[in-house]
Design goal:
The structure holds two protein chains of two kinds. By secondary structure, chain A is mainly beta. In chain A, a hairpin with a 6-residue loop joins strand 3 and strand 4. Chain A has strands spanning 9-12, 18-23, 35-40, 47-50, 64-69, 72-77, 86-93, 100-102, 106-110. The N and C termini of chain B lie far apart (40 Å). Chain B is globular. Chain B has one helix at 102-105; strands at residues 3-7, 11-12, 18-25, 34-41, 47-54, 59-61, 69-74, 79-84, 93-101, 112-113, 117-121. Classes of the chains: A mainly beta, B mainly beta. Chain A binds chain B through residues 3-4, 34, 36, 38, 43-48, 51-52, 55, 57, 89, 91-93, 96-105, and chain B through 4, 39, 45-49, 52, 60-63, 96, 98, 104-116.
């Protein structure tokens, strides 16, 4: 399976909103409700932000939200804060076995 | 508080077998719905899912790597061990273990991760 497609970078000023896209196919993102998003500050453990396309784990701020249209999932970060500067990865069930595929990651810069 | 930590050799030679250990706390792999999974990231590449073991000792492997992988658990030590045979330079990567809590965040989301351990493959 090919990796999901994410833009390599995104940026925004404090207080603004930024949306990161993640494009797959009808066999993964478009075919199952198992899209997740992770935040990774280098050197630290990745953190789950969104699961099953739109759900937020307990403790994740409401300004992180997920959505999907067709074969493309999106993560929106509203009210950007300096600590949001990190790498963001999407993932999806690949449609067979227990295989999960990931995006290449998007580096979010808070200007 | 859930924590996971990966440990193992930083350097292995080609053709050798890699053994990594994931030591965890804050949950039990005897609890229904709990799983531990392994993921890796090679330099400049996307994250890649490798293997999973669940509370019933069922194991699942990446379709592309299943002939080289074995995962096992020792619930008395709260550890999961990953073995990968016939290592090659292309297997140089940061290896992560993570938890799945199926009845909290579903089957395919990893709700807690370790910080990862870098493994280099070189003669």
């Amino acid at each position: 399976q090919s990796a999901l497609t994410q833009p390599p970078s995104a940026s925004g000023s404090p207080g603004q909103s930024v949306t990161i896209s993640c494009t797959g196919t009808g066999s993964d993102i478009g075919g199952h409700d198992y899209v997740s998003w992770y935040q990774h500050h280098p050197g630290k453990a990745p953190k789950l932000l969104i699961y099953e396309v739109v759900k937020r784990p307990s403790g994740v701020p409401h300004r992180f939200s997920g959505s999907r249209s067709g074969d493309t999932a999106s993560l929106t970060v509203a009210g950007l804060q300096a600590e949001d500067e990190a790498d963001y990865y999407c993932s999806s069930y690949a449609g067979r076995n227990m295989d999960v595929i990931f995006g290449g990651g998007t580096k979010l810069t808070v200007l | 508080q859930v924590t996971l930590r990966e440990s193992g050799p930083a350097l292995v030679k080609p053709t050798q077998t890699l053994t990594l250990t994931c030591s965890f706390s804050g949950f039990s792999l005897n609890t229904r719905g709990m799983c531990v999974t392994w993921i890796r990231q090679s330099p400049g590449k996307a994250l890649e899912w490798l293997a999973l073991i669940d509370w019933e000792d069922d194991t699942y492997y990446s379709t592309s790597l299943k002939t080289r992988l074995t995962v096992s658990k020792d619930t008395s030590k709260d550890q999961v061990v990953l073995n990968m045979t016939n290592m090659a330079p292309a297997d140089t990567a940061t290896y992560y273990c993570a938890r799945i809590s199926r009845f909290t965040s579903g089957w395919y989301a990893y709700d807690f991760w370790g910080r990862g351990t870098l493994v280099s493959v070189s003669p």
